[in-house]
Amino acid sequence: FLMFKHSKFICAALLLMEFMVLAAAQSSCPTNAGVPGSPGHNGSPGRDGRDGFPGPNGEKGDPGVGAQGPPGKIGPAGPAAPAGAVGPKGQKGSPGPQASRFSIFRNIGGKYYVSDALTANYNDGLKFCTNAGGRIALPTNKEENNLLMSLHAVLGSSYIMIGTTDIRIEGTFVDMHNQPLTFTKWKKN
User: Signal peptide position in this chain (predicted)?
Assistant: First the structure.
């Protein structure tokens, strides 16, 4: 650096230098190319562009080989079909269980009294009545007792069973639900 005393001279020298630099830049003189430098580093990727317009549909692909999807919802029922022709008569079935045929069937006061006229002990009679959906009769008033006495006469039996027992306490009779009796006006023994 040279120091000049006059500032005008410094400005003129600077202007002259600037002019020379500009003239050199605009010069069309060919010069030898220098040695190329090493390539620079890649920059950051640019931002994504916008989606373009949809293209035409492609060709239909081959059918898939995957698992079948879940079933859809059940649709509404269709119209009812007309009735078909009556089929041929089937073979006769095997006979059902032997039903009890009551020889005596009487009704009094909304209760039904039935008998098959068989002789049995008390336990077998109790089982028979229970299996038939009933119970051993127990008169609760004079009308029911008279009906049982008339059945007794028709059957010609020497005794008739009624739904009472003294199995828990000898001589103390109760009904089949272990409740005290409300009617006891029947023949002694």
Answer: 1-25
